[in-house]
Each structure stands twice: as structure tokens, then as C-alpha cells.
Amino acid sequence: DLDPPPLVWSFGLILKEESDSITVVADFIPLSKTFGRGTTVPRGMIKKITDIAEVDISSLNWQYHP
After folding, report:
1. How many whole angstroms from its chain centre is CA 14?
2. 10 Å Cβ neighbour count for 58?
């Protein structure tokens, strides 16, 4: 007997949209202009996408502030 798959809520930046999947990342590292903690989800498993905000990363301040 298999349990039904749990409902999972993912929050992050949509890094890439493909015809069969969407990749969401949780981290953006300005110093190296890279992303981290990515999750690729097959579109068939996605129930709903809600835009919380739109981020234009080209306008972010790239200076490192420790």
C-alpha cells in the first residue's frame, strides 16, 4: 500500500520554464551571480502557480555588503 503523494508548497524564483517542467530556486547569490537550492518540478505535478512578486535581477545592487 502506497500513501498518496503529499501536497508540497514551493516558494522561490522561477529560474527556467520548459514545456514539461519548471525550475524554482530558493537562493540568489549576487557576488557570483549564481543560484542555489534548485528544484525542478514536472508540469504534470503542478496544481497551481501564484506570482507573489516580479523581480528584475538586472536592477539589483551587485555590490557585496558583508
Report:
1. 4
2. 6
For 24, the 3-state DSSP assignment is: strand
Number of H helices, E strands in the chain: 0, 3
Span 14-58, pLDDT tens digits: 989 999 999 999 988 877 878 899 999 999 999 999 999 887 777
3-class secondary-structure state, position 40: strand
- Dihedral Cα 39, 43, 44, 50, nearest 10 deg: 90
CA proximity to 30, closest of 2, 1, 6, 58: 58
Report the sign of the C-alpha dihedral through residues 41, 43, 47, 52, in that order: positive
